[in-house]
């Protein structure tokens, strides 16, 4: 059964920020586009394998509010954080952050 993968507004903003950062810092629109495409390809795999990411709660030492099965999927230098909603056959991507960001603090706020 294929799950629907949807990006929240926050995840869309994260992708736009990733694109802008790479384009501006590395002066390469091609690199920015390639990075975003790779992230989207990785997210597409969640349609078939929604539980392939690691569980976030054990990593941060507490549960994530308003999440059923909150997970993180490493996609190159980035981590996509998402919730699996079995009742809706849905993967809701909440955030896409660089792996060097303090994502534990960001997710906890």
Name the helicity range: 40-55%
* Low-pLDDT residue intervals, each spanning 5 or more residues: none
Q: From the 3D coordinates, which CATH architecture would you assign?
A: 2-Layer Sandwich
Classify the fold: give the CATH topology: YaeB-like fold
In which order are the strands of the major sheet placed?
Answer: 1-5-4-3-2
Question: Radius of gyration in whole Å, from Cα?
Answer: 14 Å
Assigned CATH superfamily: RelE-like
Shape: globular
- Strand residue content: 25-35%
Which whole number gives the mean pLDDT?
A: 93
CATH class: Alpha Beta
The helix-and-strand class reads: alpha+beta
Tally of distinct domains: 1
Order of helices and strands: EHHEHEEEH
Number of strands: 5
Q: First CA to last CA: what distance?
A: 34 Å
Biggest sheet overview: 5 strands, mixed
SS element count, helices: 4
How is this fold's topology laid out?
Elements: E1 4-7, H1 9-26, H2 29-44, E2 54-55, H3 57-60, E3 70-75, E4 78-85, E5 90-98, H4 103-108
Parallel strand pairs: 1-5
Antiparallel strand pairs: 2-3, 3-4, 4-5
What report would you give on this structure?
The protein is an alpha+beta fold and 109 residues long. It has one domain (4-108): RelE-like (YaeB-like fold, 2-Layer Sandwich). Helix content is 40%, strand content 27%. The protein contains 4 helices and 5 strands. The chain has helices at 9-26, 29-44, 57-60, 103-108; strands at residues 4-7, 54-55, 70-75, 78-85, 90-98. The chain has a 5-stranded mixed β-sheet with strand order 1-5-4-3-2. A hairpin with a 4-residue loop joins strand 4 (78-85) and strand 5. Helix 1 packs antiparallel against helix 2 (29-44).
């Amino acid at each position: 059964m294929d799950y629907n993968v949807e990006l929240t507004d926050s995840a869309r903003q994260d992708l736009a920020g990733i694109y802008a950062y790479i384009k501006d810092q590395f002066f390469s629109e091609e690199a920015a586009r390639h990075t975003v495409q790779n992230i989207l390809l990785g997210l597409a795999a969640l349609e078939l394998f929604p539980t392939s990411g690691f569980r976030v709660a054990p990593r941060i030492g507490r549960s994530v509010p308003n999440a059923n099965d909150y997970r993180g999927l490493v996609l190159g230098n980035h981590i996509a954080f998402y919730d699996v909603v079995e009742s809706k056959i849905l993967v809701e991507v909440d955030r896409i952050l660089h792996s060097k960001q303090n994502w534990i603090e960001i997710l906890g706020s």
